[in-house]
Design goal:
alpha/beta; eight-stranded mixed β-sheet; Glycerol-3-phosphate (1)-acyltransferase
């Protein structure tokens, strides 16, 4: 329980102490949005790295050189743990927003940092609002902000399995023309979810797959795009699971 208490205490303390930073970031954004994007990325990266260190997580990152650095991308990954966000965010080379459930808007300060990071809040029960979120994501991708989605729609509670990938979120890549970067995350559930409420040391392997350039796909290829990405992630997942 000591690791859980340390991580939880750090998060709460960070959110409280960072109130002046939120104000400073808001002011900075009025004059220089690019500078605000970079500073918010750096601040949250630092906080996430502290959490990962306190949790005692060892991470092997594979294939980072495959991620295009000169343009925004749509990251697509499997989702097993809350730590998936921390472990992937600390490696993004440019401002990146995550698609989160709208319920996250309930949490003060946390939601403000998420908004600073261009996160999108998805209403999974309202198709019309969901489409608005997708269109908002398209605009962010066109403006150079990468987006990360977990198309299973929720955290998978069963190890070594995959929920169906929802096709709607892939429209962000199709409509913006950005590349899709598949992400395989192996063993993240061993940090926290496999033994709630304890946080334990764990070895996680994250691999970035070959980017898929949606602007070169024909109509039939786009129809099977979610399944194609899911298959690529599964292949990487089970290959890397054998390395643990």
């Amino acid at each position: 329980m000591i690791r859980f208490i340390c991580v939880a205490s750090f998060v709460i303390l960070f959110l409280i102490v960072s109130i002046p930073l939120l104000i400073a970031e808001w002011i900075l954004g009025k004059f220089n949005m690019d500078a605000k994007n970079k500073s918010s990325l750096a601040i949250v990266n630092w906080a996430f790295r502290c959490c990962i260190r306190m949790a005692g997580v060892k991470v092997d990152y594979i294939g980072e050189e495959r991620v295009p650095k000169d343009r925004a991308v749509l990251y697509v990954g499997n989702h097993r743990s809350y730590f998936d966000i921390l472990l992937t965010y600390v490696r993004v080379p440019r401002p990146t927003g995550y698609v989160a459930k709208k319920e996250m808007l309930r949490y003060p300060l946390l939601k403000d940092w998420m908004k600073n990071l261009h996160c999108l809040f998805l209403d999974r029960e309202n198709l019309k609002e969901g489409m608005k979120t997708i269109l908002e994501g398209v605009e962010k991708l066109k403006s150079g902000i990468s987006i990360c989605i977990f198309p299973e729609g929720t955290r998978n509670k069963v190890n070594d399995t995959f929920l169906p990938f929802h096709a709607g979120s892939f429209k962000m890549a199709e409509k913006s023309g950005c590349p899709i970067v598949p992400i395989s995350i192996v063993n993240a559930g061993a940090i926290f979810e496999d033994h709630l409420p304890k946080i334990k040391k764990a070895h996680v392997i994250i691999e970035y797959g070959e980017p898929i350039y949606t602007d070169s796909l024909d109509r039939n290829e786009k129809k099977v795009l979610p399944e194609k990405v899911k298959n690529q992630i599964e292949t990487m997942y089970f290959k890397n699971k054998n390395l643990l």
